[in-house]
TrEMBL record:
Region annotation Disordered: where it falls in the sequence: 1-28
Name used for this protein in its record: Cystatin domain-containing protein
Domain of life per record: Eukaryota
Compositional bias annotation for Basic and acidic residues: 16-28
Entries under InterPro entries matching the protein: Cystatin_sf
Length: 199
């Protein structure tokens, strides 16, 4: 009678019969479940933590309540921002970088007398005038509306601002809203990539 004695091949996940044939070893389901409980029970201390915790190992995955809440907030953010232009980007949920890759475009905090953004806006108006061969009215900067930005090899600003016709000297001039994309790469002068009247 053929002997059925088996021995474990070290680290291979295979067992060898006495006749030299190899067969795959299959751990019992109970042992697998016990390993699961043993491995993930140590993460239970994070269940009520305010910080999002997520661990994945093979087919096993742990997420605490804070992480699940963050996932839900990110889904809402994606739905709200899906059809927005870069000029109208909204803020990401706090700690979203733990799940989302890259910084994306986010609102830039400005004051209405921000000299740097004012300067970029004036450069953008010069660009607009040159692009249109000095046709039409000459616009002069009036005020900042809002700004978003992205961190890509420096910073890209997406500025929304108002301007008025240079020859309009009234106390309540008609204002035109412009949008400009300004690239501020490291160690380079600001580059106006786009400037147009907002439609």
């Amino acid at each position: 009678m053929e002997q059925k004695l088996l021995k474990q091949e070290s680290g291979s996940g295979l067992e060898q019969k006495s006749d030299g044939d190899l067969v795959e070893s299959k751990p019992e389901q109970k042992a697998v479940e016990e390993d699961f409980v043993k491995y993930f029970s140590k993460f239970s201390k994070y269940d009520d933590s305010d910080f999002p915790y997520h661990v994945k190992s093979g087919n096993f995955e742990y997420k605490n309540e804070a992480y699940r809440l963050l996932e839900a907030q990110i889904q809402i953010y994606k739905e709200k921002s899906r059809n927005l232009s870069v000029y109208d980007a909204i803020a990401r949920p706090p700690r979203s970088h733990l799940i989302l890759m890259g910084g994306g475009v986010t609102p830039h905090v400005i004051s209405y007398d921000d000299p740097i953004l004012q300067g970029y806006s004036k450069l953008a108006l010069d660009y607009y005038r040159e692009k249109n061969n000095n046709q039409g009215p000459t616009f002069v900067f009036h005020g900042l509306v809002k700004c978003t930005h992205a961190l890509i090899n420096g910073r890209i600003f997406y500025i929304t601002f108002t301007a008025k016709a240079e020859d309009d000297l009234s106390d309540t001039p008609a204002l035109t809203t412009f949008q400009a994309e300004v690239c501020c790469a490291r160690d380079k002068q600001p580059e106006i990539r786009e400037c147009a009247i907002k439609i």
